Amino acid sequence: MGVxxxxxxxxxxxxxxxxxxxxxxxxxxxxxxxxxxxxxxxxVASAAATDAGATSSxxxxxxxxxxxxDAELLKEKCSDLEYGNSIGIERSAAKFCAKDxxxxxxxGRTTLDATTGKACIEAIKKAAATAVPGAxxxxxTFPPCDRVFVGSxxxxxxxxxxxxxxxxxxxxxxxxxxDGVCKKAAKVGGACTPQVFxxxxxxTALSLHHASCxxxxxxxxxTCVARGADGAACVSSKTCSQGHACVMGKCAKxxxxxxxxxxxxxDCALGLMCDNGTCAEKKSAGASxxxxxxxxxxxxxxxxxxxxxxxxxxxxGSG
Length: 319
Hints:
By secondary structure, the protein is of the alpha+beta class.
């Protein structure tokens, strides 16, 4: 499973959207998911469809196309078992996505740009061939996917979520039953609301066009705080300079490379592991392993109980 669908496991996030109260239509037409014949197809709204039905249809069409964009590649690279598992995860992610997007569009403050949506799906297909398995960014952080949703609410207008606001504005102060207000990014010390929408748009994606805080600051939950320079103490990359990482408790320009010191896997660059305090390449098929040490997966025998070591096995051609 490639970079574009790796966040499927975290689709159900802590700030789930509320049920939609109104609805809107758009011109987004269902797109082919390029999945096998037995894959679920996105429904096509008929001319007599209600606004709500059309909104649901466009959401399902986009999400199915995006999350199953690499289906043909998976079919080619994976065993039947691996393929079935991967497609099952992708279908589940697409359903969560469609539910969230339907809610977002339903309030009439955000539209899904049809042309950009199709371009996003094509970009996912191309990128899937070279994506590094295990990456945790959502595809909405990459162009043109970052421009799929277009907010219409101007500064000072009512909002529930950041994607409802026009570019350069974010939603501040929303609580259940109380609308927030679309505002410009706050300065250090200013009030802010963490930006995330369901399991579809994470804070990184929303910060591209709807940042909570000005450049050089982040939202700690209520207030904009200055980001730490390289060398500053940290517990999360979020508190470090934009694009930099928290490595072994200190902000750094990038995650550690092969041979560098580490305390955990997240200290190392993508695709590496922390092996006895040093970042190293993950192991190939056939090597002995413990959890998270393989390019593919680590098969650990169930017997005897409590076994912690196994053997690396290739997953979808990972090696």
